[in-house]
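Exercise 7b. Backbone tokens:
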């Protein structure tokens, strides 16, 4: 079975500046989990409901649709041509972009949103319809309940955790990608501090980026496999396990880990690795990008083994 991933992307000429939204604080959005990723129900203007991946590593407003026929179905007017670069070994992708569309995510309405439709076939066989990110993460504190499969949108700065939560600092890079500090022990040696970013659109638990100056050693008995697909093509790499992953005071053991080439997988300078959604699923999570905070509390999946 193919394993599908979406990766943090750079949209050339596509501004990440906020646009007016009509979503009010403390509204809720239901979601599904497929292949460890969050799938949102989204309608564009008066369209049928589309299945859209939520990507914390997508720094731009609006939605990117994967198949060109969706552009015909939506009858988008005034669309312009844009270049998109993402992870993968191929060339950059092209899309048409239409401004000022209305996105209904569940019952929450986002107005003035750009919609991009890919014009090549890189993602044409993907099992979902598209991806969105900053329209949600860029304007709210976003609370995930992975047990009830509900996202709650809060006014930024208004989430005040009790002592059962842990608060971590987030650093946003120039592309709006959220970085945190973490640590790994690959084979049981002392932990190695790492600078990692969060990519909720990857269904892995952890990805460690392989480059000549990497801080970690590779474990033994790695297997080579197809890891997934980014907007610029397929990604292959090695796969194995690390002894521990530490995020704040939380330790996860025997963590399944992908080891892709940094050059192919990530366009984020200074990144040692990526915390992915199979790890986030084990927590109650609140992202507050504006306050530069990440709040974590273990849920019922925390003590279960990662597969």
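Sequence design result:
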């Amino acid at each position: 079975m193919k394993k599908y991933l979406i990766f943090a992307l750079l949209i050339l000429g596509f501004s990440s500046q906020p646009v007016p939204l009509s979503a009010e604080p403390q509204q809720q959005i239901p979601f599904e989990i497929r292949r460890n990723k969050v799938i949102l129900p989204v309608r564009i203007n008066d369209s049928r409901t589309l299945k859209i991946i939520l990507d914390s590593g997508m720094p731009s407003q609006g939605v990117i649709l994967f198949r060109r026929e969706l552009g015909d179905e939506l009858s988008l007017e005034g669309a312009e041509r844009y270049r998109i670069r993402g992870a993968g070994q191929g060339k950059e992708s092209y899309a048409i972009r239409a401004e000022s569309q209305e996105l209904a995510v569940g019952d929450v309405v986002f107005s003035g949103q750009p919609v991009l439709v890919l014009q090549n076939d890189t993602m044409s066989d993907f099992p979902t319809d598209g991806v969105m990110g900053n329209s949600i993460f860029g304007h709210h504190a976003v609370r995930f309940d992975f047990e009830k499969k509900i996202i709650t949108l809060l006014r930024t700065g208004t989430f005040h955790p009790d002592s059962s939560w842990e608060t971590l600092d987030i650093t946003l890079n120039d592309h709006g990608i959220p970085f945190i500090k973490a640590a790994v022990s690959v084979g049981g040696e002392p932990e190695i501090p790492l600078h990692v970013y969060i990519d909720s659109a990857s269904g892995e638990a952890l990805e460690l980026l392989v480059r000549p100056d990497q801080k970690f050693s590779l474990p033994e008995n790695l297997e080579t496999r197809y890891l997934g697909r980014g907007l610029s093509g397929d990604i292959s790499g090695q796969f194995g396990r690390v002894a521990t992953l530490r995020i704040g005071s939380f330790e996860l053991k025997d963590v399944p880990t992908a080891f892709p080439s940094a050059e192919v997988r990530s366009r984020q300078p200074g990144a040692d690795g990526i915390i992915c959604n199979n790890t986030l699923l084990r927590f109650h999570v609140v992202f507050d990008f504006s306050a530069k905070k990440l709040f974590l509390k273990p849920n019922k999946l925390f003590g279960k083994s990662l597969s």
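Instructor comment: The chain has two domains: 23-154, 166-298. The radius of gyration is 18 Å.
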